[in-house]
Amino acid sequence: MGYALDFGWLNDAAGMIARGAVMTIFLIAVTSVAGTALSILGAAARRSRYPLLRRAIAAYVELIRNTPFLVQLFFIFFGLPRFGIRLDPLVASMLAMTLNMTAYTIEIVGAGLDAVPVGQKEAAAALGLRPSQVFIKIVLPQALKVIFPALTSQIIIMMLESSVVSQIAVRELTYEADMLQARTFRAFETYFIITLVYLCLSIGLRRLLLAIGRRTIARGVS
Fold it and tell me: How far is CA 48 from the centre of its chain?
């Protein structure tokens, strides 16, 4: 017996899908800003003259990069309450996503920092700039220009991985899809639509980030 496609439920479900998409966008917006800022600090700390700090950052990166994101999420949401730390599912999701993205992005930012010629730093120091000014005004803009495509890809990957937070009942796109297919019993049609939504979000976010990069980072370097 053939399977008949049925998208008649889609009009009534549009609101749920839109709410899930908005939550997904909110999660990645918060995670991108926080994760990028922390990764810049982490990459700089990993190149500091303090061995203990360098080893601590390296251990954090290895821990996060070599364990599943789902386990990290469950540890924060289900494990921390053992120590009296109870987090709202949304807060736990943002924390887990930020910690995960920071670990991966530290390596990306670090590669950009290493790509800036030493002569640039020496010339800036010779002009009397303080080390913090050299980093912020000279090194960081050039590093961001180098790594921006990789940073953009990491943000997209993190947005797609945000589907995991549906496991702790955060009402993002995948959670709403699960609710819809349980209600309609149209699993193929539901996940087909959600796949298209994720595809549109990924393409739109990539184009937005590249446009922002062209307007801000390139201008800052020039």
Answer: 25
Sign of the Cα pseudo-torsion (118, 124, 130, 135, in order)? negative
- Give the whole-angstrom CA distance, residue 105 versus residue 97: 12
Amino acid identity at 40: I
**CATH for 10-221 (1.10.3720.10, 3.40.50.300, 1.10.1840.10, 3.40.50.261):** 1.10.3720.10
In 3D space, the residue among 60, 44, 192 whose CA is nearest the CA of residue 112 turns out to be: 44
pLDDT the model gives residue 220 = 53
Q: Which amino acid type is present at position 188?
A: F
Please return the burial class of 61, using the count of CB atoms within 10 Å of its CB with bins 0-12, 13-18 and 19+.
buried
Coil, strand, or helix at residue 218?
helix
Q: State how far Cα 66 lies from the chain centre.
A: 17
Q: Is 121 exposed, middle or buried (0-12, 13-18, 19+ CB in 10 A)?
A: middle
The CA distances from residue 123 to 19, 126, 128, 212, 217, in Å, are 51, 5, 9, 29, 21
The one-letter amino acid code at 47 reads R
How many CB atoms neighbour CB 6 within 10 A? 12
Model confidence at 186: pLDDT above 80: yes
8 A C-beta contact, residue 198 and residue 160: yes
User: Has residue 221 got a pLDDT over 70?
Assistant: no
